[in-house]
Amino acid sequence: MANLVYKRVSTDKQSTDRQNLVLAEAGIEDPVVFEEDAGTSSRLHPLQRPKFAELLTYARPGDTVHISEMFRLVRGTGHVLDVLDVLHRDQVALRIHDGAFSAMDLTARHPRTGELLSTVKFMVQTLAAAGELQRDLQRELTYDGLRAAEAKGNKGGRRPAVPVDKTDDVRTAYLEGRSIAALARDHGVSRGAIRTTVADLLPEYTAAAPGAPAPELPVVLDMPGKVADFLRAAELEPAERAALDQGVTVRRGQGYTLRITAVPAVHSQLLSHCQPLGATTAVPAQRKARREYANRVNAFIQ
């Protein structure tokens, strides 16, 4: 009975370090590894991916497929059930070693008919509908990424700023023509840390006038989806439209919020545009959405 290991990353900027760590901890004996080319899209159906198709051709009844987390193989309910149907047809087991579904027996079959148990289908559909796969993806990418980095001797968190005793050296080197990228490499810090150290020497630097108020700093606020949908059809100023267009969609069950980064003044202007949602003629869900956004905006303006 062979142990077949499947690995995949979504972009060529990622590595399999995290998957390797999870699978190594599982203690799989004599693994036969099938690894997709870097950048194989998760949007491609698992049964159409070259290495997974090769794995299925290689597999024999009684073999077990091992993956670190379910999202390495599938991303949606349809994909899960399609893969399970094929594995059950070929009498191949599936073992997920971490994250969503890792505690479930996805290979359970009806003792008389041999069909995939309806309870397995129900659990898969319920967890997927609840967004468990997406939450697991976000959590595991962060947590296990840190574990993999620590295993290699790297520490997480921000890179350090330029030490005080090196500030003069950095500024002198910059004035002598050393690039920001080169200085960042020399001192083992980020480019942002170098830019902060030489900020007043940069061509775009403009000294603030004496007594001038400090510029507003951008803040990140979550805008309910119903507010965002309303504002997309409204007449907005360029800065307001840009903030809305650059917002990051965050799924919330059946709805979503739009995570917007903008200065408080822009948030305030966006709030003023959605006044009609607070009217008695608006549906209750719209009034609630506007009220939630107003509370978040007002917390920064007051």
**What is the fold-level CATH name, i.e. the topology of the largest domain?**
Rossmann fold
User: In order across it, which strands form the biggest sheet?
Assistant: 2-1-3-4
Number of domains: 3
CATH class value of the largest domain: Alpha Beta
Number of strands: 7
- CATH architecture of the largest domain, please? 3-Layer(aba) Sandwich
- In round numbers, the mean pLDDT is 78
**Terminal-residue CA separation:** 67 Å
Q: SS-based structural class?
A: alpha/beta
Give the helix proportion (percent range). Answer: 40-55%
Computed CA radius of gyration, to the nearest angstrom: 26 Å
What pattern of helices and strands is seen along the backbone? EHEHEHEHHHHHEHHEEHH
What is the overall number of helices?
12
Poorly predicted regions: none
Protein name: Resolvase
Family: Belongs to the site-specific recombinase resolvase family.
Organism: Streptomyces natalensis ATCC 27448
Pfam family, one: Resolvase
Can you offer a commentary on this structure?
- GO terms for molecular function: DNA binding; DNA strand exchange activity.
- InterPro entries: Resolv_N, Resolvase-like_N_sf, SSR_resolvase.
- The longest helix is centred in the middle third of the chain and has 20 residues, at 132-151.
- The protein has twelve helices and seven strands.
- With 302 residues, the chain is an alpha/beta fold.
- The radius of gyration is 26 Å and the shape is flat.
- Strand 6 and strand 7 form a beta hairpin.
- It has a four-stranded parallel sheet with strand order 2-1-3-4, covered by helices on one side. Strands 5-7-6 form a three-stranded antiparallel sheet.
- The protein has helices at 17-26, 50-58, 77-89, 118-129, 132-151, 167-175, 180-187, 191-197, 225-232, 238-245, 264-273, 284-301; strands at residues 3-7, 31-35, 64-67, 93-96, 219-224, 248-252, 255-262.
- It folds into three domains: 3-148, Resolvase, N-terminal catalytic domain (Rossmann fold), CATH 3.40.50; 164-201; 219-301, no CATH class.
- It starts with a strand and ends with a helix.
